[in-house]
Amino acid sequence: MKKPIFNAPAPLALDFSPTRRRPGWLGWLALVVGAAALGGVLGEAYSTHVDLQERASIVERLRAQLSAKGGRTATGSYEAGPAFAVAAQLNADWAGMFADLARAQESEFNLVELQADAARGSVRIVAEVPTLEAAFAYLERLRAQRVLRSATLDSHALVDAGGRMVVRFTASAHWGAER
What we know:
This protein is α+β, with helices and mostly antiparallel strands. It is 43% helix and 22% strand.
């Protein structure tokens, strides 16, 4: 046996890094809750992915059936009517219609309401002018425009607009190419 040496220096501790604490129960609980949440999110993502694949296969099967029928529906007729109506509205000359309305206006003209239906090719205008003659003059200028034609006076009435009397009239016009 070795004899202890008295008055000897203490052994050197060359480990300068502090000792790590072991995680407590709260850390382990946070890890378990995080892992459970990750598992739930991954499960939901997987079910969404499977659902999306099923829908894509259904779409591909329906496209194959449609192309096998030659682009026709089950009754054998094309259903292009709604598509043509939407295309007519999108291809309508909206800028030309608004330009015609602006060119026909005068300084005393107040547009109150405008209803345009590109599919039917009709425009309904509600406006206020100082006199009935000004309403007729506006309709004549509207008839002379390029896009709007066949402007007619539907109704008129004398109304009070802030202390002065004006003529409020309703007119309709055809819009688009000659038919």
